[in-house]
Structures are given as structure tokens and as C-alpha cells.
Amino acid sequence: MLRLASAALAGTAIEFYDFFVYGTAAALVLGPLFFPSFSPLAGTLAAFGTFGVGFLARPLGSVLFGHVGDRYGRRPVLLASLLLTGVATVAVGCVPTYGTIGAAAPVLLLLLRFLQGLGLGGEWGGAVLLTAEHAPEGRRGLWASFPQIGPAVGFLLANGMMLGLSASLSDSAFTSWGWRVPFWAAGLLALAGLWLRRSVEETPQFRALAETGSRADAPLAEVLRGHWRLLLLTGGALAVGYAVFYAVTTWSLAYATERLSVSRTVMLACIMAAVAFKGVVTPLIAMLGDRYGRRPLCLAGCTLCVVWMFPLVALLRTADPLLMTLGFAGALLGMVTMFSVVGAYLPELYAPRIRCTGAAVGYNLGGVLGGALTPVVATALADGSGPAWGVAAYLTGVALVSLACFALLPETGPRALRGRAEGAGGADREKETGAAEAAAPV
């Protein structure tokens, strides 16, 4: 399990490195380089618009790679998604700016960002199912949390490289070529990830489906026909996690450097400290999910997000590094309390034959609802000299919607499923959860 979980974590970290390095570049340099005729605010909005295209592509990637995962296995998804994202990220670092090739520059940027999102949309489902379907029932939450550590590791890699370059290069050198280096480095990371995943075994649940001829012919059609309500609820439930994460890591970076005159280096350091905290607590919270259930932790995390968004903006407004880091850490604690357990929670909601598609589409739908719009909306709402209370209100509203969605979802932890099986029988359990096959190993 440790070897499998490490391979899943490493690949996910590399893919999220590719995804996050674009977000940091969008906050710092892409606006002036690719949209020079715009005002500073409009240029930032345009750069965040290309950032959002990656989220729009992620559900399409989850449909494409989910079909591959449910028809041909989880392992091919792990390799193909990593290769696609790595190639697209290296290519971003090679795109000439607007001053060199004109309008073709932002068009190429948009296309490559779309391909990045397509690859990442497939990555999560394959990586999570690799661990969740191999894991013993009582530790499924812990092992399935390893891919959830990947985003924190990828973010620290991406921003650590940006921070080092920002601190060591002059502004002109960083703007000229320094920002491209992290994109080029993605090629080496992708090769390392492919080497780590080359010997990963197919999951026992998929092998059983293949041997019995029980694979879904059209997994997306099955998900939409039989589980559309579950799909919408999971997308809505996860939206707040994405909204909070990208408000902290992307919008606040642009806001503080442009409006509060905080140095780029200080902001990157504050955000990285909070994300490192998030990564450390992920497996600890996941173990609580194995003991007390997935849904209670999701509800607790949402509640923390509801009450913390206004303090987050107030602490950010101080421009004090320690207070800003405290605000970021509190927000990410609410986010990770939910996301540490969703690696086990979402697959348990779906039957094995449609699990790769259902779990991945639900997860990435949350990314569209919460991640694609947040930097753009937050930047527009913060257009003024006072505190960004509009941003706090927006994030609080998203958190309330997610809280309502989690309240409507069933529990899937081992104790809850055993209780349903003993108290109601298989047919009643199917009626209550809409996914009775999902939790128990084949």
C-alpha cells in the first residue's frame, strides 16, 4: 500500500505542479506579457480568464479518462493523463509573448491551458482509485488521502521555484525569461512521474469486473441516467474547497501585491507556509474520517469555511505576514477537513463499474463551480480601496451552498454501511444511498 500510495501521490503532485505554476504566473506576469493593451486590472482579469479555462476542461478530461478507466483500467489513466499535462505545461513555457507574435500568443496560451485541464481532469480519478480500491476497508480514508496530499506538494514545488526565481532575479529578468523556467522543469518532473508509475498494478476491483464481463459499456450514460442528482450534489459540495483554495493561493497573491504593496516574495512565503500546513494535516484528518465517518468531517469543514471568510479578508488587509499566514491557514484548514476524506468518500458513492467516471466528474464539476470563477469574481469584487468584504461575502455564500449539498449526501464510512446492511438489507440500502455497490470490495 505504501508503494502504491507513494506512486499516486508523486504523480498527482507533478500534475498539480503543472496546474498551479500557471496560476502563480497568471497572478504575477501573464497579464502584462500577453494582454499588454489592457489596463492592469483588465489584464489580470484576462490572465485569470485563461486560468479558468483549465477548470472548464477538467470535467471533459474526467469524462474522457473516466471512460478509459471504467472500460480499460485505472492504470492507463495514470500514465496518459500525466503525459498530456506535462507536455502542455512545457509548451506554455515556450509560447512567445504578445509583443512577439501578437494575438496568437493569448490564443496559444488558452489552448495549452485547456490541454492542461484535460489531463488533470483524468489524473485525480485514476490516482484516487489506485489507492482506494487497493486499500483495506478500515484504512481506506487514510490511503486514499495520499493523492490529496499531492496538490499541496505540487503547489509548494511550483511556488518554491517561483519564489526562488523571484528572490534571485531582477524584476526585468524574471519578467523576460525567469517565469518560464518552472514550466520547462515540468518536463523533467513528468518523466520522473512516468518512471514511478511504470510498474503500478491494476486494481483488484477492476480486474474482477474485467474477468466477469461486468464493465460498463457507456459509463457516462449510466452515471447521468442513474446518478445525476448525486453528481450535482457532489459538485456543489466540493465547490467551496476549490473557491477557498484559489482565493488563498491565486486571488490573494494578485490582490496583495497590486493593492497592498506587499512584496511578491513575502506573499509567496506566506501562502506556501499555509499550504505546507494543509499538506501535513491531510492524513491526520483522513484517519479521523476512517473512525468517525466522511460526512461529519465534510460538514465540519464547510462550517469552518462559513465562519472564517470575513476574518480571512480582515487578516489579509493588515498586510502583516504572520496575520496573513494565520488567515490563510484557517481557511485551508476548513478546506482540507473536507478534501482529506473525499478521496475515499466519492468512490464509495458509486458502483465499481462506473466509479472512475462518477467520482472524477463530480470532483471536477466542483472545480468548475468553485475554482474557475473565484479568481475572476474576487478580483472584480475587490476593485476598490477598502477591504474586500464583497469577496468574503461571495466565499461565505459558496460555503453555505456546499454545506447544504453535504447535508443531503449520505454517509459511506465502514460503520455506516455495516449498520445499513444489518438494519435495512441490501435493497433498502440501495434506495437510501443510490449506490449500494459502491463501498464494499468486489
Compact description:
With 442 residues, the chain is an all-alpha fold. The chain has 19 helices and no strands. It is 82% helix and 0% strand.
Q: Could you walk me through the main structural features you see in this protein, from its secondary elements to its overall organization?
A:
The chain contains 19 helices and no strands. It has 442 residues and is mainly alpha-helical. The longest helix is centred in the middle third of the chain and has 41 residues, at 219-259. 59% of the residues are buried. The protein has one domain: Growth Hormone, Chain: A. Helix 3 runs antiparallel to helix 5, helix 11 runs antiparallel to helix 18 and helix 12 (264-292) packs antiparallel against helix 13 (294-317). The chain has helices at 2-34, 40-72, 74-92, 98-101, 104-132, 140-144, 146-168, 171-176, 181-197, 204-212, 219-259, 264-292, 294-317, 321-339, 342-348, 355-372, 374-381, 389-408, 414-433. It is globular. 82% of the residues lie in helices and 0% in strands.
Unreliable parts:
424-442
Mean pLDDT across all residues, rounded?
A: 85
Number of strands: 0
Secondary-structure element string: HHHHHHHHHHHHHHHHHHH
- The general outline is globular
Largest sheet: none
Number of helices: 19
Q: Report helical residue fraction.
A: over 70%
Rg value: 21 Å
Indicate the topology.
Blueprint: H1 2-34, H2 40-72, H3 74-92, H4 98-101, H5 104-132, H6 140-144, H7 146-168, H8 171-176, H9 181-197, H10 204-212, H11 219-259, H12 264-292, H13 294-317, H14 321-339, H15 342-348, H16 355-372, H17 374-381, H18 389-408, H19 414-433
